[in-house]
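Page 47, continued from p. 46.
Same chain as before, 171 aa.
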Amino acid sequence: NGAQMHGVRGVAAAMGASLSTQLADRGPLVQADRNGDGKDIVACDITKQADVDALVAQVGAIGALVVTAGLSPTMARGRAIYEVNFLGMERVLTAFEAILQPGAAAVCFASTAGHFLPLTHEVAAVFDEPSSPQFFEHLAAACVVVDESAPAYCSSTTRVVRRFVPRAVLW
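Result:
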């Protein structure tokens, strides 16, 4: 029918579930979460490019995208936080940018912790190359302990804010 699809990633948690409810009457809606239910919620682990690509292939034209997926320092070790909060967000936005329609909108949740941690130029340069197969090795070489949760949370959130805000003009 030509209607633009709306997508919400991270629907198992309260924010994602609430947003899905609010978008439900605005047109076709795809809901995704790491643990899909096989019925209404598509399984999509944003740490896996193949899962993200499969989700995008199901969507077609995108009118709105909401990404609430994220881990706090109490939920995981540092490497997992980087994988979900920064690299996962990168995978999702990059993949969905390929099917943007005029007037599309994206809302990506990130903590205010991203505004409080200054990063060295060396660490910022690593975050500027998220597709590098040596991402974690480069972080370690820049004196980042990649398995520490709190610094991972703050630095990944810092880079989400600084990397994706300038890309907002695409949406």
